[in-house]
Write a structure and sequence with these properties.
Blueprint lengths: L2 E2 L8 E3 L3 E4 L4 H7 L3 E5 L23 E3 L2 E3 L2 H10 L4 E5 L7 H15 L4 E6 L6 H9 L4 E4 L4 H12 L4 E7 L4 H14 L3 E6 L7 H6 L15 H15 L4 E5 L1 H20 L5 E2 L5 E8 L4 H11 L4 E5 L2 E4 L4 H10 L7 E8 L6 E7 L2
Parallel strand pairs: 4-7, 7-8, 8-9, 9-10, 10-11, 11-12
Antiparallel strand pairs: 1-2, 2-3, 3-12, 4-5, 5-6, 13-14, 14-16, 14-17, 15-16, 17-18
Helix pairs in contact: 6-8, 10-11
The chain binds iron/sulfur cluster.
Length: 369
């Protein structure tokens, strides 16, 4: 729900978890907020070494791909991951995707042909390597949004090339605290060139940039341990300034916790709802919840009895020593276990929460029988 927090013509609008914007939210961002976008990391190679780069050591400098945190090795696996979450769009990121340009074009074409031309694709780049030819090819294969992270004067050249090729161009940058003048100049320059939106991201701390942050004297917020103190304050000041000093350009502040609280959870929920078996339920975090019954001895007769009582679809008997069953029938299951005096002592019962993509058990709560 959109809340109006100010009432001038260029209002600052507010979305849950602290998102603020002036103008209209970029389409790529609104799909992201609903968890409808596949996040596709297509290479860890990059031509820059930004001190604040949050890319993990596992990915940095390596030509590897991940779709929604799952490593993928070919284009078919990318489509599989997109279908798994019923993705309405894809955000392509890196590293610097232009370094693997022919792969990038193949991926965009494939996504558009398999998932429909309305499948919304946005691409992140620092723009330094963008040539006129690249921009024309990106436009021709249907790229919907190009988001340029300004790293140098050459990135601005990339902005101009992309706009001249007819691409919808936004700028996406992390907000370094107390650099108001730099960002004000950047916003005015972007608006004068015809950039459609500026995404101001709250500066994030990761394992790989932690030391660089510390050396520069930055600290983390008390309530969000991966967000840098002062970044949000600078972004809010910029929005207030932009309200009075810009005319058309959208300015959008994206807090670090949105990624975790909205994007990731919504994405997990979409995937979980697609993969959940009849004996699993999806919780508010997008994890699969079920009961696990395990035993040191054979309990097959008991499992068959449970199956008769709760229905075949509500139990998955893996072996005579292990089964998964719906938590909706927990009381019934406990009653039946209590009655099976011969094996009762050898049985263990848990409620587990399982990740819908990796299928790792993230939480295991033992129950008294
Ligand atoms: S351009 Fe992006 S990917 Fe490359 S080093 Fe900078 S922040 Fe990291």
């Amino acid at each position: 729900m959109v809340k109006h927090v100010m009432s001038w013509s260029r209002e600052i609008l507010k979305l849950p978890f602290g998102t603020l914007y002036i103008g209209s939210l970029p389409l790529g961002c609104s799909l992201c907020h609903k968890g409808q976008k596949l996040v596709l990391f297509i290479t860890g190679l990059c031509n820059r070494r930004c001190w604040y780069c949050p890319i993990s050591d596992e990915r940095r400098g390596k030509d590897i791909m991940f779709a929604n945190e799952v490593q993928v090795r070919d284009l078919d696996e990318i489509i599989k991951q997109a279908m798994l979450m019923d993705a309405r769009g894809t955000g392509i990121t890196g590293g610097e995707p232009l370094l693997v340009f022919s792969r990038l074009i193949k991926i965009i074409k494939l996504l558009k042909s398999k998932l429909g031309s309305e499948h919304h694709i946005h691409l992140y780049t620092n723009g330094e390597l963008l040539s006129r030819n690249h921009a024309i090819l990106l436009k021709e294969c249907g790229l919907d949004e190009l988001r340029i992270h300004i790293t140098s004067e050459r990135s601005w050249k990339g902005v101009e090339i992309a706009i001249n090729a007819g691409l919808l161009v936004g700028i996406e940058i992390p907000v370094i605290p107390n650099q108001l003048d730099y960002y004000k100049r950047l916003i005015l320059r972007a608006e004068s060139l015809g950039v459609k939106f500026i995404n101001l991201n709250e500066l994030e701390v990761s394992e790989s940039n932690y030391m660089a942050m510390k050396l520069r004297g930055y600290d983390v917020k008390d309530d969000v341990p991966y967000a840098v103190k002062g970044s949000e304050r600078t972004a809010v000041e910029l929005l207030k300034w932009a309200k009075e000093n810009t005319k058309r350009i959208t300015i959008h502040y994206c807090p670090a916790k949105v990624k975790d609280a909205i994007q990731l959870k919504s994405r997990l929920k979409r995937i979980a709802n697609k993969v959940a078996k009849p004996y699993e339920i999806v919780d508010e975090d997008g994890l699969l919840v079920k009961c696990v019954i395990s035993s040191e001895g054979n309990m097959l007769p008991l499992l068959r009895l449970i199956s008769e009582k709760v229905g075949k679809s509500k139990i998955h008997i893996v072996s005579g020593r292990y089964a998964e069953v719906s938590i909706a029938h927990l009381d019934e299951v406990i009653k039946l276990i209590k009655r099976s005096t011969d094996i009762k002592r050898k049985i263990k019962l848990y409620v587990v929460r399982e990740h819908p993509i990796t299928h790792l058990i993230l939480e295991k709560i033992p129950l008294d029988i």
